[in-house]
């Protein structure tokens, strides 16, 4: 396999070859720990699948907060692209205030604003938002031109806060600020931790948790919430699917933080631990086995008999409902293979659901994950800082004098940590079989090459790859937007996922497609080195 991969890479110019080969590995437990290059600059000119820092801040973390007016300061395309395209669902609330998600707020910067500056336009936009919507908070998200022309969004936020007596938070998440969406997650986490978390003082119930890194895509968060509430947990806040700023203000009061997407919220999880003493637990509600494991781990953390019994009763009840249907789909999918390429956590999280259908993952990779998402958090001290990640503020906090408290005694913590790994994420590589391939920041050339090499039955990724894969005569399953389906989380979501995959694999469409390039080249000509 290594030889075949080398052949793919050898087509690159020498410098590109040297770079790209560090981003690919074949899993081999005997060579563990295996290192991969990640969170590094994409080579200019390569057709990457990545997005920008603004997308990670506004589109991913801040955007789903429904009770705030998130204004995109920039050209209209940036605001438009991040206007619910992610399918982060939200309800019109139960007494929380508002839901502004169906609006797209933007300063719609024009050439004249780029030349003369856009601060006045931004001030005007905030004024209009206050007048029309009277929100409790406003968030300003910067796009590329804002940083390039030097609009001071922090000064505007300070001015507006006084002028309108409303909280205004500025996020300097210019698209180019980092190498991918990932920098935007960090900037958003920092802003919410500094200005929102810890500002509330609502009383919280017994067994209170936050769900971090769950964005309610296709309703996943609602299914997770249903399970957790049935067992008896009090969910203080969700960061940030169907989430609200008002609830997030009390996040510091949780007894435990549940981390679904490690990449996008590990910063907040760690800051909450350092400042308030709250442990975090990596959970995963995608797939039946990991849903069972997550529910059991949470109950074990609190150690209350009632919670443990209710957890087991819920698991038994849900399994009885889904098993007959799952069996039907498993028969249709058994023996097929999958390749997964998704942002920063789902190429990991969806391997379980495929496995439960009898499908092996032959390739998996991330757009923008860091080495810890691949190799486990133990590598964090060894990750080299570079000019790009130094560019993003790294907040360091100590214990809060009044509000720091530990839920577990030291002995209890030590004992539990042996059973379930608290404040730790083991990464993706450890769950993968020997011989499977890991590719970081894949590009279009590599997608096509690996498709030809591995011939997976399904390629799970996003909209940018979908039609290239379909044109190759293979099923593409969107694991970002869920192809307008979902929820996929929890027991019932697993059945919907299984149904969708079985349906996609068995459709007769694939027999009818004969891509033109399977019978001959579609483009012919000579390669001319110099044009006179
Ligand atoms: Fe986390 Fe996400 Fe993902 Fe992500 Fe994303 Fe997403 Fe994703 Mo698209 S927060 S890293 S930045 S799980 S939007 S809900 S699907 S790339 S794998
Ligand atoms: C983003 C959002 C995205 C894009 C999905 C896709 C999402 O990265 O800005 O490429 O299909 O989930 O909506 O990841």
From TrEMBL:
Q: Which SUPFAM superfamilies match?
A: Helical backbone' metal receptor (SSF53807)
Q: Please write the reaction equations for the catalytic activity of this protein.
A: N2 + 8 reduced [2Fe-2S]-[ferredoxin] + 16 ATP + 16 H2O = H2 + 8 oxidized [2Fe-2S]-[ferredoxin] + 2 NH4(+) + 16 ADP + 16 phosphate + 6 H(+)
Instruction: Fetch the Pfam families from UniProt.
Output: Oxidored_nitro
Please provide the record's keywords in A-Z order.
ATP-binding, Iron, Iron-sulfur, Metal-binding, Nitrogen fixation, Nucleotide-binding, Oxidoreductase
Among InterPro entries, the record links this protein to: Nase/OxRdtase_comp1 (IPR000510), Nase_comp1_asu (IPR010143), Nase_comp1_CS (IPR000318)
Nitrogenase/oxidoreductase component domain segment(s): 52-504
Q: Which cofactor does it need?
A: [8Fe-7S] cluster
What EC number(s) does its UniProt record assign? 1.18.6.1
Per the record, the domain of life is Bacteria
- GO molecular function term, any single one: nitrogenase activity
Q: Which PANTHER family match?
A: NITROGENASE MOLYBDENUM-IRON PROTEIN ALPHA CHAIN
Question: What family is reported?
Answer: Belongs to the NifD/NifK/NifE/NifN family.
Name-wise, this protein is Nitrogenase protein alpha chain
Can you name the source organism? Desulfocucumis palustris
The major lineage groups are:
Bacteria, Bacillati, Bacillota, Clostridia, Eubacteriales
């Amino acid at each position: 396999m290594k030889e075949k991969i080398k052949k793919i890479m050898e087509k690159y110019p020498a410098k590109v070859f040297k770079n790209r080969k560090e981003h690919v590995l074949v899993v081999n437990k005997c060579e563990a720990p295996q290192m991969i290059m990640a969170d590094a600059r994409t080579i200019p000119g390569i057709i990457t699948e990545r997005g920008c820092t603004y997308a990670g801040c506004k589109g991913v973390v801040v955007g789903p907060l429904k009770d705030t007016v998130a204004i995109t300061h920039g050209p209209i395309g940036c605001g438009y692209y991040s206007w619910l395209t992610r399918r982060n669902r939200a309800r019109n609330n139960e007494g929380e205030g508002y839901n502004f998600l169906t609006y797209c707020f933007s300063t719609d910067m024009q050439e004249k604003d780029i030349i003369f500056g856009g601060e006045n336009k931004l001030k005007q936009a905030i004024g209009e938002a206050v007048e029309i919507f009277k929100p409790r908070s406003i968030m300003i998200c910067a796009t590329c031109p804002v940083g390039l022309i030097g609009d001071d969004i922090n000064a505007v936020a300070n001015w507006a806060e006084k002028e309108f007596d409303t909280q205004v938070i500025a996020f300097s998440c210019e698209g180019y600020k980092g190498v991918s969406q990932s920098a935007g997650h960090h900037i958003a986490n920092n802003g919410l931790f500094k200005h929102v978390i810890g500002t509330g003082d609502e009383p919280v119930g017994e067994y209170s948790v936050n769900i971090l890194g769950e964005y309610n895509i296709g309703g996943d968060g609602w299914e997770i919430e249903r399970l957790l509430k049935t067992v008896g947990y009090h969910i203080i806040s969700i960061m940030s699917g169907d989430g609200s700023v008002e609830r997030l203000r009390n996040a510091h009061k949780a007894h435990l933080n549940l981390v679904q997407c490690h990449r996008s919220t590990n910063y907040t999880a760690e800051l909450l631990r350092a400042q308030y003493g709250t442990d975090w637990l990596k959970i995963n509600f995608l797939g039946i086995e990991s849903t069972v494991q997550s529910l059991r781990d949470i109950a074990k953390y609190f150690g209350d008999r009632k919670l443990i019994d209710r957890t087991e009763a819920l698991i038994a009840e849900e399994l009885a409902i889904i098993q007959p249907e799952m069996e039907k789909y498993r028969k249709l999918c058994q023996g097929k293979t999958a390749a997964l390429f998704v942002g920063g956590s789902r190429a990991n999280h969806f391997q379980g659901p495929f496995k439960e259908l009898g499908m092996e993952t032959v390739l998996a990779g991330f757009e923008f994950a860091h080495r810890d998402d691949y190799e486990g958090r133990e590598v964090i001290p060894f990750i080299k800082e570079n000019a790009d990640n130094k560019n993003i503020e790294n907040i360091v906090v100590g214990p809060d004098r009044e509000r720091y408290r530990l839920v577990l005694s030291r002995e209890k913590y030590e004992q539990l940590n042996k059973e379930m790994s608290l404040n730790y994420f083991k990464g993706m590589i450890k769950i993968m079989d020997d011989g499977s391939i890991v590719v970081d920041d894949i590009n279009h050339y590599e997608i096509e090459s690996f498709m030809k090499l591995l011939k997976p039955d399904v390629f799970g990724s996003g909209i940018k790859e979908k039609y290239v894969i379909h044109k190759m005569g293979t099923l593409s399953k969107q694991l970002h937007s869920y192809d307008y389906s979902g929820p996929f989380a929890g027991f019932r979501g697993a059945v919907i996922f299984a149904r969708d995959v079985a349906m996609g694999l068995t459709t007769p469409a694939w027999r009818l497609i004969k891509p033109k390039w399977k019978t001959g080249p579609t483009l012919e000509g000579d390669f001319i080195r110099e044009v006179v």
